[in-house]
Amino acid sequence: MIELRTPISEKDVARLQVGDTLEISGYILCGRDAVLPKVLKMIEEGKTEDLGIDLHGQVIFHTAVSPAGVGPTSSNKVEIESSFEPLSMAGIKIHLGKGKLCRETIEALDRCRAIYAVIPPVTALLGSKTIEERVIAFPELGMEALHLIKVDRYPAIVGAAHGRSIYER
User: pTM here?
Assistant: First the structure.
């Protein structure tokens, strides 16, 4: 088990390999299909400072935050998968979610020196490892707003790194 603490460094990403098991602690962003296009627009407009956090070294979890807890959504939805490269270029180092990614996304992660890690759909477990949560942007989206949560030892498995994927043989 590899323990990581946010923010994630280039050195952290460089040592991770497909199939490694992770425990991530610290603050991570949460966003999915409704909010990611809005965040991408902020990146394009150079307005990410309006979020009040630095995206460099951040982790983003493809999820909504609700009273039921947090659990991964499919990362291969168009709105989500198309966000990998621009978010990675803006500083995101780890994308958390579930599902198989297309080859182009895996290659983009490699170019941007970022990775994708899979979180099993275990909402109750993740809820017990979530220490704090707050909305940082787009509150009108409710549970699909951009949240910042503090976590302790979130489990994940590296699903794509350095041009390779656990879904490919």
Answer: 0.78
